[in-house]
Amino acid sequence: MTSHKRKVTELSAGDVDPVIQSLVPFMASLDRDDERTAGVVDMIESLFFKLKQGSRAPSIATALDLQENHIYPYGLEFKDDTAKALVRQRGAQEVDNNILTLSNTKALISLVRKHMSRASLGGCRMLIDVIFLRLASVMSTDADNLSVIPDWTALNTSPGGRPSLEGVIDYLITKRPAKYSGLILSEPVGALNRPDLAHVGSSNIYEARTCSELQSGLMQAVLAAATLCRETQKECARGAVTCGDHWIFFSYQGPKGGEYAKYARTEVLDVGKDAENLELILGVLVDWIENAEVFGPQKYFYIV
User: Fold this and answer.
1) Cα separation, 66 vs 68, whole angstroms
2) How many of the other CB atoms lie within 10 Å of CB of 128?
3) What is the distance between the alpha carbons of residues 233 and 229, in angstroms, rounded to a whole number?
4) Fewer CB within 10 Å: N-end or C-end of the chain?
5) 131 and 105 Cβ atoms separated by less than 8 Å
6) Backbone phi, psi, residue 76, to 5°
7) What is the distance, to the nearest Å, from the Cα of residue 262 to the centroid of all Cα atoms in its chain?
8) By the 8 A CB rule, do 200 and 176 touch?
9) Backbone angles phi, psi at 136, to 5 degrees
10) Contact 62, 222 (CB under 8 A)
């Protein structure tokens, strides 16, 4: 029996990503200025483009793309146990008359885990949605409203016009004056690009991935943060990549003076089997919203 020959359009992220990730170290070792290897580099880049353009896989960036854009990594480490306890305390704070209490949020997380498959991105996003709704419910006030914009398409995330890195931002979390919230939710791209609103409040970028794709999602989110800063003429931005159960937070700073661009990232933070670390995740999320345009020094983390 003849084996089924698949088309590029039938390939999934699980098919494409391992191929790309396996070629990244090899490609990074090649000298682009050496004419003997220039053709090989071009062929690999062409392969990346064809796979990502034609497949159903999400947009993907790699460490190589960050190197080409002169963006270099740093680490984020909790300062000490006291800092971690303060983050948990901040994430556990309640507000009056909020139906989405911390205990109700944990119950919803348990419900999603019990009945929704998280093998695909759809199930992961339902879990992420619950956590973002909790965040919005405790951070929105009469003066300011937290809005969750899924599938943000206003940014061109491909540096240098490279189509292989194009894609939408899975979530833009924005805090703006409450009087604009209806407009932002109805027409987010137009509203948030208005000159009088573009530099009001704060915005964070979040990339949703399955658990096995967190690292590639981080690269993509960092590139998106770089684009956000470039297009809005801001120096810093913050964001995260998550599958709902696991989170990697990062802060980005664009090139400043004679310095190169950089991003600082946490290790993988886990919500926990019984959502026992949900307060920690929520506390970091609150800090990310409140200090969206600060790279460092940071309140709870050392940059290393």
Assistant:
1) 5
2) 24
3) 5
4) N
5) yes
6) -120, 120
7) 16
8) yes
9) -65, -35
10) no
Pairing of strands 236-242, 261-265: unpaired
Q: Which residues pair with 134 in a beta bridge?
A: none
Q: For residue 248, what are the β-bridge partners?
A: 241
Q: Which amino acid is at 222?
A: V
297 upstream amide cis, omega within 30 of 0: yes
User: Does the N-terminal peptide bond of residue 195 adopt cis geometry, omega within 30 degrees of 0?
Assistant: no
**Tokens in use for 218?**
């981080």
Domain ranges of the chain: 8-57, 71-303
Taking only the tens of pLDDT, the chain with its 304 residues reads 556 777 766 666 556 666 766 676 676 677 767 777 777 777 776 776 666 554 444 556 777 778 888 999 999 999 999 999 999 999 999 999 999 999 999 999 999 999 999 988 888 999 999 999 999 999 999 999 999 999 887 555 444 444 334 446 889 999 999 999 999 999 998 888 888 887 788 889 898 888 888 887 898 899 889 988 888 889 999 999 999 999 999 999 999 888 899 999 999 999 999 999 999 999 999 999 999 999 999 999 999 9
Around Cβ 156, how many Cβ atoms within 10 Å?
A: 13
The amino acid sitting at 77 is: E
Residue 207 main-chain phi, psi, to 5 deg: -110, 130
